[in-house]
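Re: [ENG-882] Designed sequences occasionally contain unexpected residues at chain ends

Forwarding the minimal case from QA. Structure tokens:
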């Protein structure tokens, strides 16, 4: 029998808030985090609008010396993990450290470290490259640093599935606990790809928005959408086996009940246009949760604001849910945060948790009018309603489709 898994802690750092309360209040207020590039000179770049984390100083959350040996994406993960661990009340001094693990994904690791090392080679020669470049740039090092900080000696992994990394990481951590390989997992995703390589390469793919208006740059499901806004940040959740959480008197936010995946096996960047792949992932997650398709009330969509993604995801929802698709509330957190790549699914999982906790579905900011085929309820306005079952979608380059089901905890 699979063990039940609950969420007992949450932590976030995003373009609209540097902790969960700020992030969630920003979503409720319809606040966006978009503005000009500040981390480098963006004069010669086509893309002019990004979603940067603001007012972040790593030394405020961790040892300054340790922070200097972490890339920005790792610092974000450590900060979010700190908030989540404190929120959970988990006391590692009384835990079996080999039963507590980590699964924190990143789509690209540290482009900053790669760029810096290459510049050092060109300007000063290869002998001047720092020995810390590799242990700062590799995508698994976020999980490694979180494990080191808290002495987490259980399974420690990093799932890399591009924009599905955060959701896959939470899903794989869920499976780890379900099947008895751990009692607690620190899981989520982190990313900091607002760099010259990050901006220029996504721009050359024509994936980034052509808009220069911060109020109309990330507009998922709108007929005028032109691409996504690159964001940064991290989301971490503490997943815990139910009886373990009850024994220590933990606060239980929600229960993670289903996880489904599929692959389009179609194209390195473009989704297969029928939507069959994401539809299968959603159905798999629903079946894994042991619920009916009609039980799903709310979907936090991948919703990137690219023409093809929003169209294909709509087709997938219709294919998976049939007539019930018209009754589901669907929104896109990316309308306010931008696309956090490997961290997107993690902060969107947290949005689902807060939606269930507060009975509030945030609006899809900037959505005015959709084209004919996009005819579902994409939440032009927020809803106040009781939500017992939420689904979160993530779709990644390479055809990766990942989906999780979060439900209200019923003892």
């Amino acid at each position: 029998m699979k063990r039940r898994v609950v969420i007992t802690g949450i932590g976030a750092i995003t373009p609209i808030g540097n902790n969960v309360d700020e992030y969630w209040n920003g979503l409720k207020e319809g606040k966006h985090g978009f503005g000009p590039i500040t981390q480098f000179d963006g004069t010669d770049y086509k893309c002019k609008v990004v979603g940067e984390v603001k007012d972040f100083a790593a030394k405020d959350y961790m040892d300054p010396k340790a922070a200097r040996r972490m890339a920005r994406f790792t610092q974000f993960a450590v900060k979010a993990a700190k908030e989540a661990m404190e929120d959970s009340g988990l006391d590692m001094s009384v835990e079996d450290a080999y039963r507590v693990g980590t699964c924190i994904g990143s789509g690209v690791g540290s482009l900053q470290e790669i760029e810096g090392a290459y510049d050092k080679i060109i300007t000063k020669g290869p002998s001047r490259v720092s020995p810390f470049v590799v242990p700062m740039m590799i995508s698994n090092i976020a999980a490694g640093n979180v494990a080191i900080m808290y002495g987490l000696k259980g399974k420690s992994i990093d799932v890399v599935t591009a924009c599905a990394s955060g959701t896959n990481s939470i899903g794989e951590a869920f499976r780890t606990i379900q099947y008895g390989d751990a009692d607690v997992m620190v899981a989520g995703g982190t990313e900091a790809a607002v760099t010259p390589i990050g901006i220029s390469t996504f721009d050359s793919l024509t994936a980034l928005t052509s808009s220069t208006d911060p109020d109309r740059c990330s507009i998922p499901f709108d007929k005028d959408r032109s691409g996504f806004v690159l964001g940064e940040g991290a989301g971490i959740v503490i997943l815990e086996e139910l009886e373990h959480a009850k024994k220590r008197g933990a606060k239980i936010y929600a229960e993670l009940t289903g996880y489904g995946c599929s692959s389009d096996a179609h194209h390195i960047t473009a989704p297969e246009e029928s939507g069959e792949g994401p539809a299968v992932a959603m159905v798999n997650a629903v079946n894994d949760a042991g619920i009916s398709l009609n039980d799903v009330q709310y979907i936090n969509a991948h919703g990137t604001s690219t023409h093809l993604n929003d169209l294909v995801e709509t087709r997938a929802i219709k294919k998976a849910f049939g007539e019930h698709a018209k009754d589901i509330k669907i929104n896109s957190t990316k309308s306010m945060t931008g696309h956090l790549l490997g961290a997107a699914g993690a902060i969107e999982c947290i949005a689902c948790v807060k939606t269930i906790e507060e009975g509030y579905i945030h609006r899809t900011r900037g959505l005015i009018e959709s084209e004919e085929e996009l005819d579902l309820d994409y939440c032009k306005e927020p809803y106040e309603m009781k939500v017992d079952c939420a689904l979160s979608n993530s779709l990644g380059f390479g055809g990766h489709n990942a989906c999780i089901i979060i439900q209200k905890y019923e003892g």
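QA comment: On inspection the terminal residues look reasonable. Residues 46 and 203 are 7 Å apart (CA to CA). Proposing we downgrade this to a documentation issue.
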